[in-house]
User: Which sequence fits this backbone?
C-alpha cells in the first residue's frame, strides 16, 4: 500500500461540520499504483501491470447508475510488480509464541 496515493477526508469530524458535503468529498480516491501485488519474476515479463483488466471490471462491477464505485476504483488502482520493484511502506512485526 502506498498511502500517499490514497486521498480521503480526515474523518472524526463533528456531524455539524460535514452536513452539506457531497458524498464524493467523503469517499476515498485511489491513484494508480495505490496498492502493489508482488509477483514472481520467473513468471515472465509483465504485459499489463493491472491486476484486473477494465473489461473484467466492467463485467463484474458495472458503473450503471452508480457515479462513484469505491471498490471498483480500489481494484483498478492495484498494480502487479516484480519482486525487484516491490516496496513495502509498512513494516509489520510478528510475535510467534512457542
Assistant:
Amino acid at each position: 500500500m502506498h498511502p500517499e496515493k490514497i486521498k480521503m477526508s480526515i474523518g472524526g469530524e463533528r456531524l455539524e461540520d460535514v452536513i452539506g458535503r457531497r458524498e464524493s468529498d467523503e469517499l476515498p480516491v485511489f491513484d494508480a499504483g495505490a496498492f502493489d501485488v508482488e509477483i514472481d519474476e520467473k513468471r515472465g515479463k509483465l504485459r499489463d501491470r493491472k491486476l484486473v483488466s477494465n473489461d473484467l471490471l466492467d463485467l463484474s462491477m458495472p458503473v450503471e447508475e452508480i457515479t462513484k464505485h469505491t471498490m471498483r476504483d480500489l481494484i483498478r488502482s492495484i498494480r502487479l510488480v516484480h519482486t525487484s520493484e516491490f516496496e513495502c511502506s509498512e513494516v509489520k512485526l510478528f510475535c510467534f509464541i512457542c
Remarks:
- The radius of gyration is 18 Å.
- Helices lie at 15-18, 23-26, 54-60, 70-76.
- Residues 47 and 80 are 10 Å apart (CA to CA).
